[in-house]
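Retro notes (design track)

What went well: tokenization of the new backbones is finally stable.
What didn't: we kept losing track of which sequence belonged to which structure.
Fix going forward: every design gets posted as structure first, then sequence, in one message. First example under the new rule, 343 residues:
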């Protein structure tokens, strides 16, 4: 078994800005990601690892983690649970790298068995909810152009968390009066301002509010939830499986992202636990290529809300294979993750 990494570069259509610092793209249009390749018995599985400074990941830390991970993966690639347990026991703080290895492992297993990952997991992509199309924080004069580009999508997710929230949503609703709209504050509201800010934007007919304040302000969120007629969804507070129990009764639901939690195996654990607590589940992604989004797409049929549009924000995607119809991102029927590099 051999693990290797390769850096790839892609470009976004627009700079991707959110209220919280430490995003994976920021003001740049160029992003660099890591492709993890797992080679064994003549088969190569691929996964994508996304460095997010907010969680302490860098390109270099991902490369170093993958370089050290080989002996822990071993040659018995069928035992996914034990492999991921070993990796997380050693590299718990480098879950983006573990996610890349986990995706490459699932891709390898699917290719070896000749089935797509969703079928290997006993899932049905026909149950996948439509993805939202994300609109980052930007100049208001660009909003009409962004909404026009998002016309094929049923759901819009607008980034808020600035003094222009009401003005932005007012213009958005003029441009898209019939769309489903969800908002993401990305930790941008002060704890004592959650309720006032929430009440300001409720008239815009919102599906939910994601991560209103910075991670850890659970009592402030609990109090706001008591006054909120719409769900509050945790993102920065929802990182790994151990976070789910403490969010029960605080948030209405969680956002699961493979790069944060450590891949498909850990995401499934979070989803199962949240379901057992009657919490809603959203599946998100980072700004990444179709390779990274594909890993999420294979399990998206399990969730209430999908936000797996990272590859749709790119001006050119270096990978292909995902399907898009009526605003729904679905995996292909090809073995493994079902994506390959654009020739």
């Amino acid at each position: 078994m051999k693990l290797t990494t390769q850096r790839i570069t892609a470009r976004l259509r627009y700079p991707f800005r959110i209220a919280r610092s430490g995003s994976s793209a920021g003001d740049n249009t160029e992003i660099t990601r890591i492709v993890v390749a797992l080679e064994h018995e003549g088969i190569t599985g691929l996964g994508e690892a996304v460095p997010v400074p907010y969680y302490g990941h860098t390109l270099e830390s991902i490369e170093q983690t993958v370089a050290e991970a080989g002996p822990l993966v071993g040659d018995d690639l069928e035992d996914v649970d034990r492999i991921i347990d070993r990796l997380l026991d050693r590299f718990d703080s480098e879950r983006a790298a573990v996610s890349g290895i986990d995706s490459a492992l699932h891709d390898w297993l699917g290719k070896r068995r000749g089935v797509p990952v969703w079928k290997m997991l006993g899932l049905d992509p026909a149950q996948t909810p439509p993805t939202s199309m994300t609109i980052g924080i930007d100049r208001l004069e660009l909003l009409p152009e962004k909404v026009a580009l998002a016309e094929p999508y049923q759901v819009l997710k607008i980034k808020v968390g600035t003094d222009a929230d009401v003005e932005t949503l007012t213009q958005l609703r003029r441009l898209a009066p019939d769309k489903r709209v969800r908002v993401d504050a990305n930790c941008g509201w002060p704890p004592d301002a959650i309720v006032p800010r929430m009440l300001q934007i409720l008239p815009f007919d919102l599906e939910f509010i994601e991560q209103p304040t910075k991670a850890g302000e659970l009592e402030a969120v609990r109090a706001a939830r008591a006054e909120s007629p719409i769900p509050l969804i945790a993102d920065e507070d929802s990182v790994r499986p151990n976070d789910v129990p403490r969010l029960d009764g605080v948030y209405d639901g969680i956002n699961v992202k493979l790069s944060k939690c450590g891949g498909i195996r850990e995401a499934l654990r979070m989803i199962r636990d949240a379901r057992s607590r009657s919490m809603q589940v959203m599946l998100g992604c980072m700004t990444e290529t179709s390779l990274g989004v594909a890993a999420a797409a294979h399990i998206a049929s399990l969730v209430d809300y999908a936000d797996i549009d990272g590859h749709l924000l790119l001006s050119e995607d270096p990978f292909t294979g995902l399907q898009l119809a009526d605003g729904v991102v679905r995996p292909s029927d090809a073995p493994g993750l079902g994506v390959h590099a654009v020739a």
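Added context from the reviewer: The chain has two domains: 2-115, 120-341.
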